[in-house]
Amino acid sequence: MSIITISRGSLSASALLAAKVSARLQWPVVTREDVLSEAAKYGIKETGLGELSFVEKAPGFLDKMGDRKKQYLVCFQTALLDFALKGNFIYNGHLAQFLLTAVPSVVRILLTAPEEFRISSVMKESRKSREEAISHIRLTDERRQKWSHFLYGVNWRDPAFYDLVFNIERISIDLAADILADVVSSKDFTPVREGQQVLADLHLASLAKVHLQQSPRTRGSDLEIEASAADGTLTVKGSCPRVGAKMWESDIRAVLSKVEGVNIIKVEKTVVGYYE
User: Fold this and answer.
1) I want to staple 181 with a disulfide (CB 3.0 to 4.6 A). Which of 24, 146, 208, 215 is the partner?
2) Strand runs (DSSP E) across the chain, as ranges?
3) CA 176 to mean position of chain CA atoms
4) Domains, in order of start, for the chain
5) What's the pTM value of the predicted model, to 2 decimals?
């Protein structure tokens, strides 16, 4: 299993690149809308964040303090892993690579271009005036940056987060598609034999987090979860209050026992006092 993620600013080139690579590799293209549709069964609509696009204003400070961001991310991640379990795909969207950092064989692509090229492209695509195009680009960049900070606390334009960066003023979409098809077919990105098992483990752990976020008894819990899908084992690690420690563990076990594929639940808790 391999995944290609494509990120971009205000250009429409990412959809064109995804389509051309899809034709070369015969991989399906998955969009944010596809993932949101898949994530509906995990309760992503309850967060209200799925209804917002990344060109809209990012939620404010108070939203960062709540649980809905955590629930949105775990629902979206689980849905992404649903697609990954089915086989290779190309994700044409924004920021998904940050939810796939532990997945083997992910090729992360960033499309970029100088501002003048972007202005000309927006003017041609949307028939905006130069002033309108500049305003659109700067507003889009500002809001995408705020979303990346809101969701992941990162600067999404940092090239360190990507494997390949294409300047589409200099490299055509066709050439970029050829390069990308060659890269994912090379031995450096060939999926390892253990990759499918790693993916299954990640999916089970993510599904467990979904259940924890769905339950009022465990929502907002700051827990580390490791999974072994082969035997259905979940290992849960976290801190709990000295008072109510048994109830804390009981709630976690009760919620996770309902996760499909789970047979064994191990809880490793660190008991702390109120002022520790």
Assistant:
1) 24
2) 3-7, 29-31, 89-92, 106-112, 164-167, 224-228, 233-241, 264-272
3) 23
4) 3-189 (3.40.50.300), 195-272 (3.30.1340.30)
5) 0.90
